Amino acid sequence: AASSSSISTAKEGATPTAPAPRKKTQSMKDRSKIPSSLYISGTLVSFLLFFTETIVKPFDVLESLKSSVTASSGTIAEKWISLQNLLKAICTGETVEPWDYVYAVVSLALICPLFYVLIGAPLRAGMWTGTRAKKHKVHRYMGLLFMIQYALAWTEFITDYDKAKDSYFPMTVALNGLIQATSAYLSFKVLPELDDAGYYSDKAVLSRKFVHENIFYQMMTVFGSMYYHDGCRAALKSSVWGQIVEFVYIFWPYILLRTWFPVTRFQNAGSSKQGRSLAYEKFYSIGTQMIKLFYLWAKYFLGFHINFIVFLGIMTDDDMKLIRGMFLLNVGTVSISIFLHTLRFKKVLPPRLTFSLYILQIYATFYALPYAYRVLMSHPKLCAVTLAGFCANLTRSRKLHGVWCACTMYLLGFTNIDW
After folding, report:
1. Which residues touch 71 (CB under 8 Å, ≥6 apart)?
2. Residue ranges of the domains in the chain?
3. Burial of 393 (0-12, 13-18, 19+ CB in 10 A)
4. Of 35, 119, 392, 402, which alpha carbon lies 20 to 30 A from 56's?
5. What φ, ψ does residue 123 adopt, rounded to 5°?
6. Alpha-carbon Rg of the chain, whole angstroms?
7. Cβ proximity of 122 and 128 under 8 Å
8. Sign of torsion over alpha carbons 175, 176, 177, 179
């Protein structure tokens, strides 16, 4: 009895534990508010369009776009008819050159899977037709337009590079990607605001933070589309205000711009409740690490380093061809990655297939490693500067990264070092 009494007294005298505060949920009204990041991205893109003289010479731009679309469409039609005739000749037993067999097999091996994944399967699932297409029509059809633009841009680049390097068409691809990312953020307000991106899983819903974050990378592709155009870059450098915009993008994007956008860290990938199937845990863990490694490599050597070379004007014509090709890969990756997740979420394609396609897409840049190695080793001092930034990033110190940005800006922008 005494023991029971003492226990009762202890319980009564104990300080009551306050219930854990509930996480405040955002109302749809709160989610409808436009964040500062969108105003900033819109302002900076407007500055780019103005200082690169893209919007002050609309007739030249429109003529360039018309020429690119007409030529690329004609090339695709011509190649398709040629391939049809070749396949017909092979099927009817006509004599064809061995190279023609290789051409037919490689063409079909590339075209058929790409068409099925990006156009065929979504079309069959009603992404642009039927009941599914009744909501978010602008977002859906602008996405379809992006696929068409992207195909035309690659066609022009592969078949007529001399024309492609001076074309304004890649800018429309990047701008459409930015529009897509922004419309996704504004349209899909019901997405959860989670630290887990939701992308690196087979069942998790995409986080709205991840969609918001993607706008930053789309904005960077818009800059690349203009900066890698010789005429636009020269116009940007011709004014003081243009040079300020250039310095922001070249040296300070992760200090002055990135901080306005949310961050979904790789360490939180797959942390959502029941976001990953237990059977696929290892698959997604390995895939996430592969993406993380690629991101670090791409951020500094495909991002900062390439931009430094262009900023200093020490690139050759062959270097620029490589840079523009990798840019096209990147502008597609940033947008198509989200579309692949949509296909997974809508159960149009299997989750592991869409995730594997994304990894394959980002690692496609490694096809250029032999050329990239030459570009990197041609400027060892600049490579050392980039490597220093890479090492600073590993410390996860924003202050140290800021110091690196300041030192790099001084060395590249205000000294006469022979790089």
Report:
1. 156, 160, 163
2. 41-60+119-258+270-378
3. middle
4. 35
5. -65, -40
6. 25
7. yes
8. positive
User: With b meaning 16 or more CB within 10 Å and e meaning fewer, what string describes 191-217?
Assistant: beebbbbbbbbbebbbbbbbbbbbbbb
The model's pTM is: 0.88
The pair of structure tokens assigned to 390 is 């890479």
Length of the chain: 419
Q: 65 in helix, strand or coil?
A: helix
For residue 418, give the 3-state DSSP assignment.
coil
Query: How many whole angstroms separate alpha carbon 127 and alpha carbon 342?
Result: 10
- From the CB of residue 374, how many other CB atoms can be counted at a distance below 10 Å? 13
**Per-10-residue mean pLDDT for the chain, 419 residues long?**
38 47 62 90 93 82 93 93 88 83 86 92 88 80 94 95 94 95 91 89 91 95 95 94 95 95 88 83 92 89 92 92 92 92 92 93 79 79 94 90 96 93
Distance CA 52, CA 68 (A): 20
Give the Cα separation of 105 and 228 in Å (integer).
34
- Spatial contact of 334 and 177, defined as CB atoms under 8 Å apart: yes
Angle between helix axes 281-297 and 380-394 (nearest 10 degrees) is 140
